[in-house]
Amino acid sequence: YTPQAYLQGDLDLFFANFSKNQVQRTPTLNSINGGVLQTSQQGFQFNGESALDLEYAMSLINPQKTTLYQVGDEVQGASFNDFLDALDGSYCAGDDPVQDASYPNPNGGFPGPKNCGGFAATKVVSTSYGYNEADLTAAYERRQCMEYMKLGLAGTSFLFSSGDFGVAGNGGRCIDPETKQYNDGSSGIFNPGFPGGCPYITSIGATQIQPNASVTAPEKACETVIFSGGGFSNVFPLPDYQAGAVKSFFTNFPPPYGADRFNNSQATRGFPDISANGANYVVAVNGRFSLVYGTSASSPTVGAILTLVNEERLYAGKSTLGFVNPFFYANPGMFNDITLGANPGCGTAGFQAVPGWDPATGLGTPNFPKLMDAAMSLP
User: Fold this and answer.
1) Strand 193-194 vs strand 131-132: parallel, antiparallel, or unpaired?
2) Pairing mode, if any, of strands 220-221 and 231-237?
3) Cα separation of 223 and 225, whole Å?
4) Torsion angle of C-alpha atoms 14, 18, 20, 23, degrees rounded to 10
5) Tens digits of per-residue pLDDT, 344-359?
């Protein structure tokens, strides 16, 4: 999403060290509503996200191609709806003029018309951004969520990072119980994310290797630099595919908080669904290597894993997985269960990682051979 953009020199620096045959390779660019790979503004805040996502996605699925949807011009930027409009022209008609871009833009930038349709969805789409549920209206969120369901049924898996502030929202903010406004995050109501609470996307949390442990030792919920986002939606009801996992969590490991802290009705969607490592990613940004942390790293990693699974299914004459959540919850043994760590926020310890699904790490991290075997057994 513009103004975020990658620099080819960063990709080449990474590839020269970790994926040598990809030096000078670029992702396939789909420019939506004037999406541009701007270079006038540089720095981690402008290049870090794109560098992280592309360097790992391209390396993990090589030699498969990676598609970059660059959405929005440098004047208006873009929303998730603007991206969905480009995949499904019929979705354009319900856009919100406050939240979503309008073209032609009287303030300059992309001259229009708005891209309504014309772009194909890849079979896996990973997004490392998100809102707080409280940022948007419930009607806006429900409409967008249904579009993810529609595209999921057509064969695309939509993955979103679950957030980096534990049970708090973006920036570590929580909700004041009296004013219902955001506070400094030291107290208040838990602040779940969107689209993480949408039951038709797959929400990806973060784990880490324990300090001084081997890479094969059990992981824990990420508690270094970031905390894996997780919790329960205030908008979306509990989907049938997740009902057993959520019931088990509340029955066996009831959280020590009441309705004054989070939606403890046991009737709403929980997230994340699964996790992947989110700590100590070596990323080339602005000509040097940096360590990056976050669910914005774990989401494209899972996206690459699903892409490799889809590759094998297509080779065998089968369809892509599409919406994966029912498959995941029906086969929890495909994941390494995480039982250590938590996702603090809002002046609390957050939710603990426990046996089975939990709102810190979901079902756990993918065990690739088991995931592949289970996926290949599907029709």
Assistant:
1) antiparallel
2) unpaired
3) 6
4) -20
5) 999 999 999 999 999 9
The whole-angstrom distance between residue 309's C-alpha and the CA centroid of its chain comes to: 18
> Are 302 and 334 in contact, with CB atoms under 8 Å apart?
no
Catalytic residue, chosen from 49, 55, 95, 358, is 49
95 is catalytic: no
Catalytic pick among 10, 53, 55, 95:
53
Q: Are 331 and 307 in contact (CB under 8 A)?
A: no
Query: Would you call 373 a catalytic residue per the annotation?
Result: no
Calculate mean pLDDT across residues 107-115: 91
Is 248 a residue of the active site?
Answer: no
For residues 33 and 101, the answer to whether their CB atoms sit within 8 Å is yes
Give CA–CA dist 52/61, Å, rounded: 14
How many beta carbons lie within 10 A of that of residue 181, not counting itself?
Answer: 10
What phi, psi does 127 have (nearest 5°)?
Answer: -125, 130
334 closest CA partner among 273, 270, 293, 277: 273
- In terms of Cβ atoms closer than 10 Å to its own Cβ (0-12, 13-18, 19+), residue 10 is buried
> Which position has the token pair 């109501």?
189
What is the predicted pLDDT for the residue at 104?
A: 87
Q: Are 69 and 54 in contact (CB under 8 A)?
A: no
Radius of gyration of the chain (CA): 20
SS3 for 127-148 is: ECCCEEHHHCCHHHHHHHHHHH
* Contact between 356 and 332 (Cβ < 8 Å): yes
Q: Supply the pTM of this predicted model.
A: 0.97
- Give residue-wise pLDDT tens across range 121-142: 999 999 999 999 999 999 999 9
Rounded Cα gap, residues 12 and 227, in angstroms: 30
| Beta partners for residue 277, in sequence order | 207
Token pair listed for 325:
């959540």
